[in-house]
Amino acid sequence: MTKYSNVTPYRETNNFFASPTLYENIRDFLHDEIIEVCFTKKDGTERKMLCTLQSNIIDQEYESYDDTKPPKIINKEVMRVYDTEAKGWRSFLLANVKYLKTNLNDYSS
Questions:
Q1: In the prediction, which pLDDT does 90 show?
Q2: Could you give the domains of the chain?
Q3: Which residues share a beta bridge with 82?
Q4: What pLDDT shows up at residue 55?
Q5: By C-alpha distance, which of 108, 39, 109 is closest to 78?
Q6: From CA 103, how far away is CA 96, in angstroms rounded?
């Protein structure tokens, strides 16, 4: 599977997709801004999505911590995001990501 090495215009991206911290790296982008993710869906079609994890955009509050419940196990093979166009939660497999685009505001006219 081919991965693009230059996935973001202004940040260091050498071996970005090979990084053991890929989940955390993408999550950091999502908390900072709206990004475009292109990935292959399970049915084989390609999908481009504008998504984020910025709390000021998401019209929902995250679940508050409840110490009476065991912590949820995070599957770092799947990224759960808020789709800003569909205005809902979506997810994608990190292994199926073709590219990311960040700093989208820098290109708007």
A1: 94
A2: 1-59+72-104 (2.30.30)
A3: 52, 89
A4: 86
A5: 39
A6: 22
Provide DSSP, 10-67.
Answer: SS--TTTTT-TTHHHHHHHHHHHS-EEEEEE-TTS-EEEEEEE--TTTSSSPPPPP-T
**pTM score over 0.70:** yes
**Local confidence pLDDT in tens for the 109 residues of the chain:** 333 434 544 444 456 666 778 899 899 999 999 999 999 999 999 999 999 999 888 865 555 455 666 667 889 999 999 999 999 899 999 999 988 988 887 655 4
Cα gap 35→52, rounded to integer Å: 6
Buried b / exposed e along 73-88 (16+ C-beta atoms within 10 A): eeeeeebebbbbeeee
Q: What does the block give as tokens for 22?
A: 């890929």
Neighbours of 94 (CB within 10 A): 16
Rounded CA-CA distance 72/16 in Å is 27
